[in-house]
Amino acid sequence: MTSNPLLDASGVAKNYGAVAALRNASLSVLPGEVHALMGANGAGKSTLVKILTGAISANAGRILIRGEARDIRSPAAARRAGLLPVYQEPSLIPDLDVLSNLRLTGTPVEPFRAWVRELGIPDLDIRDTARDIPLAVLRVLDLARALAVEPDVLLLDEMTAALPANLAEKVLEVVRRQGDAGRAVIFISHRFVEISALCDRATVLRDGETVGVVDIVPGVEEKIVELMLGTRIVKTHVAARSAAQKAAPAPAQPRLAVRNLRVGTKLNDVSFDLADGEVARVVALEGQG
Q1: Which of 28, 56, 85, 107 has the greatest number of beta carbons closer than 10 A?
Q2: Measured at the alpha carbon of residue 162, what is the angle toward residues 115 and 145, in degrees to the nearest 5?
Q3: What is the torsional sign of CA 214, 147, 170, 86?
Q4: HSE of 276, CA atoms in CB hemisphere, 13 A
Q5: d(CA 59, CA 93)
Q6: Could you tell me which residues are beta bridge partners of residue 38?
Q7: Count of CB atoms within 10 A of residue 95's CB?
Q8: Which residues pair with 68 in a beta bridge?
Q9: For the whole model, what pTM was predicted?
Q10: Helix, strand or coil, per DSSP, at residue 62
Q11: Per-residue pLDDT tens for 38-54?
């Protein structure tokens, strides 16, 4: 990877009335890098991605692509700049078939077909209507559509969240190869195992601000959690938990004990204990109440 950023965003802010979705976000991504964008729910990750890809406009900030300032005010402008997103919700128009969706975005059909096969769906019929295609497959089609135009920066928002294991594995393989080919990928995921296996660095947001950039190395998870939640919060939580564990009394008698409960034909030989502070979930097997 070179030292010159492919994408460099700084001072990005976005307000919705009195609510600040982003306050001072920055993100710098190198060519050939798979870069994680991390933060707790509400930290501003999706808002930053939507600003970078022209879905919404920022109130402040600067975006450089290959060192050149770009004013990205629409998805078309982002696409021309080489930035393409794959959002959490599929973007294909439900009432159109796949081919018509491709034509709307000017996506080349044959590269799209090749990527669909590469991503683990060998028998797609592009005449199928989007609404009749399973959600997991639609997400993969969105990714294939983005890959088909060879973007400089691919932005993936929780790409594997709704995928079965076999498709998720294919996606991760393809993402890694994008980095190997000199392109950049911004990868949003809550799964540390994916971040550790796939990403080179991570930028962490908290309360709409960038609070740190870390290299992905063994044991970095604790540092990322501290950045996501705030060092003081994490240390206080750990200390309180340790104190509680030391002071914990011996196991008490259950608050409620049920043994061999029978009610007509509905319940037959039901037993369970309920301790202080517990919420119990009783699961009945089919035909047993």
Answers
A1: 85
A2: 25
A3: positive
A4: 4
A5: 30
A6: 204
A7: 9
A8: 65
A9: 0.76
A10: strand
A11: 999 889 998 999 999 99
Q: Are 161 and 88 in contact (CB under 8 A)?
A: yes
Of 58 and 232, the structure prediction assigns the larger pLDDT to 58
Token duo for residue 233: 């919060």
> Using CA atoms, how far apart are residues 226 and 206, in angstroms rounded to an integer?
10
Residue (of 16, 9, 14) closest to 35 by Cα position: 9
- Residue 258: CB partners within 8 Å, gap ≥ 6? 270, 271, 272, 273
> What does the block give as tokens for 23?
């306050």
> pLDDT at residue 63 above 70?
yes
Query: Helix 165-180 crosses helix 135-147 at what angle (to 10 degrees)?
Result: 10
Tell me the one-letter amino acid at 25. Answer: A
- Asked whether the beta carbons of 14 and 47 are under 8 A apart, the reply is yes
